[in-house]
Amino acid sequence: QVQLAESGGGLVQTGGSLRLDCAASGNIFTINDMGWYRQAPGNARELVAIISRGGNTNYADSVKGRFTISRDNAKNTVYLQMNNLKPEDTAVYYCYAYIMAKESGTYWGQGTQVTVSS
């Protein structure tokens, strides 16, 4: 069974940094796009960043220049380095991946809370 496991959330002050990790496990053939979404209370889930298997990236305008997405294909892992964090970055962050497996499709992590205090 394919699963995504996230780690790295927490509480940080404005201007601080955090790194989120998300590792995929199970009987995986290959992973195409991987990325991160976030959802703040009362808001819709929004795309933060996406990275293709070849390393092409896209970011939400609100995080450009502050967040960096990367991946390690050998470890089936995607990372989100978040610098210069702001209170408006506070949200639950979810990783996702489009995985080719016995049951191919989009898989989601359980979510990890990021809280930025002012």
What does this structure look like?
About 0% of the residues lie in helices and about 60% in strands. It has about 120 residues and is mainly β. The strands form two sheets. Strands 2, 4, 5, 6, 9, 10 and 11 form a seven-stranded mixed β-sheet that branches. Strands 1-3-8-7 form a four-stranded antiparallel β-sheet, with no helix packed on it. Strand 7 and strand 8 (about 75-80) form a beta hairpin.
What secondary-structure arrangement, pairings included, does this model have?
Blueprint: E1 3-7, E2 10-13, E3 18-25, E4 28-39, E5 46-51, E6 57-59, E7 67-72, E8 77-82, E9 91-101, E10 105-108, E11 112-117
Parallel strand pairs: 2-11
Antiparallel strand pairs: 1-3, 3-8, 4-5, 4-9, 5-6, 7-8, 9-10, 9-11
Q: What's the short version?
A:
The protein has no helices and 11 strands. By secondary structure, it is an all-beta fold. The model has no long low-confidence stretch (mean pLDDT 97).
What is Rg? 14 Å
Uncertain residue segments: none
Order of helices and strands: EEEEEEEEEEE
Strand content: over 45%
**Main pleated-sheet profile:** 7 strands, mixed
Determine the number of helices (DSSP H or I, runs of at least 4 residues). Answer: 0
Question: Which key features would you list for this structure?
Answer:
single chain, 118 residues, mainly beta, seven-stranded mixed beta sheet, four-stranded antiparallel beta sheet, 0% helix, globular
